Each structure stands twice: as C-alpha cells, then as structure tokens.
Amino acid sequence: MALMPIKFDLPKRVKLAQGLWLLYWVSVMAGIMIFSLGLFFKIELRKRSEMMDNDESHFVPNLLILVGLIACGANAFGGKVCHDSLDPAKFPKWKPMVKPYLIFCCFFNVLLLVTALFCFLVQFSIYFALAEGLKNGIKFYKDTDTPGRCFMKRTLDMTQIEFRCCGNNNFRDWFEVQWISNRYLDFSNDEVKDRVMSNVEGKFLMDSVPFSCCNPGSPRPCIQHHLTNNSAHYDYDHRIEELNIWTRGCREALVAYYGGMLNTIGALVVAVVVLESADMAGLKYLTTSLETMADPENPESESEGWLLEKGVKETFSDLMEKLKSMGKGNQVEEGEAAATTS
Amino acid sequence: MALMKVKFDLKKRVKLAQFVWFMYWFSVMAGVLVFSMGLFFKIELRKRSELMDNNESHFLPNLLIIVGLVACGLNALGGKICYDSLDPAKFATWKPIMKPFLVSCLFFNILLVVVALLCFVMRIPFQFTLAEGLKNGMKFYKDTDTPGRCYMKRTLDLMQMEFRCCGNNNYRDWFEIQWVSNRYLNFAAKEVKDRIGSNVDGQYLMDGVPFSCCNPSSPRPCIQGQMTNNTAHYSYDHYTEELNVWKRGCRDALLSYYGGLMNTIGALVLLVTILEVGVMVGLQYVDTSLSTLSNPEDPESESEGYLLEKTVKETYTDIMAKMKSMGKGNQVEGGEEAPVATVS
C-alpha cells in the first residue's frame, strides 16, 4: 500500500517537472538569502564585538553561512535533475543518485531545524555576553590613551546615540565609574581632591553622564552634569524630569535589537524547511512516476507516483530490520574472522 | 542614399527583434529606477524640509517621477511592438503608429537630457535655500514650546549628529544666537542679567554649543560650554583643540550630501538616455527591415534596414519643406476664407 499514490499521464508529468524546477530555483534563492542573513548577522556581531568583550560566539552565523551554501548547491542539483527528467536519454544517469540525494535532503532538513532552534537559543548567550561586555566598556570609557582600548569611548558613544540608551541597566551606572581620564583632571583643585578622597578606590566619581546619553527630543538643552542636584539647575527636578537623557539601558536595547534579528532569521529558516520538504516530496513523486511507466518505451504512457512505496509503519520496520541485519552481518563477519585467525 | 544600411535575412530579423525586445524590458527597469530615484529624492527633501524653511522646490523630483513613468509606458509599448513584429498579421496593426512613436521617443530622449542637465544645475539655487533655512532653524532652536516649531530642536540635533556638523558655517554660529529658552533661565541670577544686559537685543548669548555638536572621537569628555575660556577647563586650549566638536558647518555637509545625490541621479539619467537612444535605433531597424521585404508574401525573403531613408541633410531639408508647406497651407486657407467672409 503505497503512501499517497497519484496517477500521472504525460502532460501531468511535464507540468510537475516544470513546477518543481521552478520551485527548486526559488529554493536556491532561499539558500542565498540564508547565506546573506548569516553574513549580515556575523557583520553585526563583529561591529559591536567590543561591547561583548570580543568574547561572542560566532557559531550561529557560521552555521547559517554553511547551511545557506549547502542549500544552494543541493537545490541547484535538484533543479538540474528535474530539468533532465523529461528527457529519457538524460534521466538514466541521474537515476542511481536520486535515492541517496533524497536521504541527504532529509538529514539537511533536520540540520535546518536544528539551526532554527539555535537561532532562538543563542539570544541567552548574547544577553550574558552583553551584560559583561557593557560593564567593562563603561569601565574602559576613559582609557582613550591605552592601546587596544582607545576606541572604546567612541564605540560606546556611538552605540548610546544609535540605540538611544544610557549605561548598562540605566544611567546611574555612569555614577559608579570614573569616566573622565586622569589626564583631564586638575589634581591641585580642592573639589577634585575631595571627590577622589571620598571613596575607597580613589576614583573621581560624579553624578554626571556623557553627552551621548542626551535625548534630542528634550525641550530644554541637555543637563548632563549634577543630575541629582536640583538646585544646580533652574526649574529642575530630577525625580520628574523624563525627557532629558535616555532612560533605557543599553543592554536591554541591544538585546532587543539582536533578539528581533534572530527571531526573524529563525522564522525564515523554518519557512525554508517547509519549502525544502515540498521540494523533496515533489522530487519523490517525479522520480517514482518516471519509474513506474506502464510501457517504458512509450513516453506517453500512464504511471503512478507515490511518497513511500509501503506505508509509514512498514517502511520504518523495514529500516529497523536493515540496520539490525547490518549489525548482525558485522558480528558474523567478526566471528568468522576470529575463527579463521585462531 | 539611406543612412547606415544593413542587409537582413529572416534569422537576422528574428535575432534583432528578440534582442530589441529584451533591451526594451531592460529599459522598463531603467524607467522604474528613474521613478524610484525621483521618489527617494522627494522623500529626502521632505524629511528635512524644516531645515530649508519648508521652502524647497519639488520641481526636480516631480519631473523625475513623471519621466520615469512615461519611460516605463513608452518602453513597454515598444517591447510589445517588437514582440508582435515577427508576426506579419499583428505587425500590420502597429505599422501606422510606428513613425509617430519613434518621433515621440526622440522628443522624450531630448527631455531626458534636459532632466539630466537640471540635476546638475539645481545645486546652485539649492545652496541658497539651505543657507537661509539653516539660519532660521538655528534661530528657532529654543522655541520648543511654540506650535509649529517645537520639533526644530530635535530635527537640528539629529541632523548635527547624523551629518557630523555644527552650526551653519561653523560652530561659532551658535555663539551669536540665544539657543536656551527663557523658560530655563533664572532671571534673578546675576550672571544671567549680565549676559542679557551685554547686548542690544537682550539675548542670552554664550560661548557654548548644544550637545549634538560633540564629536564622539574626542579623547576627552565633550567640552560644550565656555569654549573660548581656556581657564574654565583643565589643560584646554581652544586654539589647538581640534577633535572636541565637529568642525564642519551643516550647510556644507547637507550640500555635499544632496549634491552627491543629484550628481548620481543625473549620471543615471544620462545612462538611461543612452539606453533609450539604443532601443530607438533598434526599433527603427526592425521597422524598416520589415517594411522593405523584397517579396512581401514570403517571410523568408531578404530585406534592408536603415536609420534614415535619405541622408541627414536631405531628411532635414525635407522636414523644413514640410513645415513651410504646412505654414503656407494655413496662409492659403486664410486667404481663401477672407474673400468668402467679406461677401457676407
């Protein structure tokens, strides 16, 4: 009892082959899309790798790039098989490769599903990488003269401007680090000496934030210094002032950005899995319909196509038996080899 | 003496028709490209129309949009003609409109060249619109409570950050206007009273710039207030300090952005013109090769294609003669009518 048999005549076979060929080329485009999405994700990670302590894992984008390339190749091969299927002279040379190719496609679909799962799971690792990286980034903001860290200030400023965020969790993170380099502090000044003495580590802490935290939508010019001191500014109450600086933390902003990107990529990979399954089913129908022609010499004869030669259960039990016999075959061979040697 | 004659047999005619059909679809894409470039340019102008005093001229983008649409239509029609040209039955329906179609293509190409020229030339009036608009924009920076101008601060801040510029000509433009609203000035403070008293207009001027002028690449935290006072900041000399705020003026920055955009669009329109001239020539050859079949009943007969039936000079004198005869025809008719009119 074949699974889902369909009767085919010549026009139907021709239509199936043409439709399937077109579908395979759409799948090649889908493979290219996955490749370019993987490349885009890799570039986005590299752009902000300083924010993640240069510690981020490039496993997922590399996997996407690899999977995209394999998809292109496999689908192009499938399209070629379809293109040749209607020519009785060309098709026989592809016939032996169809079964291994379909098994390969099956495993490839499983790999695609695993990739989609990774896309959704890697967001957790990015969350932790960002938390650590941003904390260190804020610490190294002032080190514009230290080789290897001299661009941290610029990167952090551009990130805060672009993502409209301030600090790691919120703007108060800037109150806890010294973000002005010692080169620009006048240590003979009393105020500087007081601030430096006021904490154990001798850091110049202040209740101010860098200019990149400023919100351009604020109606008043940006207040970035003495943020908690209401009397330092006219008509200012730091408890109710909302629009002055960005209130969102950069970790939250970046996680939302990368999370959205990864969710989109994951959803697209799942859609490609559906497309590939349709390709596989179509190719199975096409090859079986060409094999079961009532009269092999007459191209216009009728034929039947199916998904599986027997039912699902029977196919599964056949597979299990085959695997077992392969295992037993190895045991028997070993037994014989042992007998002959000893 | 035809201009640039080429002999055609059936195969060559078929190849020519297929090639010209393909080129026409390419030209439809080019028309879509011109349309979308016009749309993009229009959107970019609207995005920053506040900075240009809402006074900018949308003539050029509108023209590009119209030209793009007309190009799409003309090229689609040309492609259809090519497609039908190899079927003698269908081609006969198109034959009468071929000549007017080719003449309109010629005029359209001239229009395209004019549009390309405009793209390069419109930079100059644009410069003046920008200069005026930015000056006013900076004046209204503080008016965040005035309806109609409350977003000027945000627009100006975002623009200065995006284009990495400060002020109109340079950052000193901010020293000449009051950019802090009166609502946030404590008029009881002596310092405020001094500054306001120090100039005729009663404006609160200071040697400071908004935060959006700050350059993130500067190694030290941004100095935006008391910029000309070296003693206000440690280890600071405003004559040698280079990276602190953006040095470029926003008029320069915006002009180079829009100028680059217009130059690119102009260059693309010129390329599209060359493409259009090519398809026009191809269609003329298709048309003439099908009209000069040595044996009209036999599709496989040889034929000849040419650009112009006579040489350039003769064609020109022909056109002049035709136009004169049209003019004379009107005069003669007028003369004949006049005696008739006087009778009544």
Secondary-structure map with pairings?
The complex is a heterodimer of chains A (342) and B (344).
Chain A: E1 6-8, H1 10-47, H2 59-85, H3 91-139, H4 152-163, H5 190-197, H6 250-291, E2 303-305, H7 312-341
Antiparallel strand pairs in A: 1-2
Helix pairs in contact in A: 1-2, 1-6, 2-3, 2-6, 3-6
Chain B: E1 6-8, H1 10-47, H2 59-84, H3 88-121, H4 123-139, H5 152-163, H6 190-197, H7 250-291, E2 303-305, H8 312-343
Antiparallel strand pairs in B: 1-2
Helix pairs in contact in B: 1-2, 1-7, 2-3, 3-7, 4-7
What does this structure look like?
The complex is a heterodimer of chains A (342) and B (344). Chain A is mainly alpha-helical and 342 residues long. Chain A has helices at 10-47, 59-85, 91-139, 152-163, 190-197, 250-291, 312-341; strands at 6-8, 303-305. Chain A has a two-stranded antiparallel sheet with strand order 1-2. Chain B is mainly alpha-helical and 344 residues long. In chain B, 61% of the residues lie in helices and 2% in strands. Chain B contains 8 helices and 2 strands. Chain B has helices at 10-47, 59-84, 88-121, 123-139, 152-163, 190-197, 250-291, 312-343; strands at residues 6-8, 303-305. Chain B has a two-stranded antiparallel sheet with strand order 1-2. The longest helix of chain B is centred in the C-terminal third of the chain and has 42 residues, at 250-291. Chain B starts with 5 loop residues before the first strand and ends with a helix. Chain A binds chain B through residues 144-145, 150, 153-154, 157-158, 161, 179-181, 183-186, 189, 210-212, 214, 216-222, 224, 233-235, and chain B through 144-145, 150, 153-154, 157-158, 161, 179-181, 183-186, 189, 210-212, 214, 216-217, 219-222, 224, 233-235.
